[in-house]
Request: fold
Amino acid sequence: MREALAAAVRDVKANLRLCSVCNNITDLDPCVYLQQRHTQSEPGVRVEEPTNIAAIEKTKHFNGVYHVLHGSISPLHGLG
Ligand SMILES: [Zn+2]
Reply:
């Protein structure tokens, strides 16, 4: 059981990449946020970290696209 969980976590990490459109950390490219939004009628918003997207999503007021700047932290590039 524990081994299966570890393997699942490993798979997720192996599949993570940056969205080619908005730079969000995702396992799908383009990411789910873009796939949900077939029209990009609203202007994009820049966020510093992928976690900021979750905070904005909770408000349900924003329906545009994101662009993640990743600040100075970039876990996919070995900087922590
Ligand atoms: Zn994206």
About this structure: Residues 73 and 80 are 6 Å apart (CA to CA).
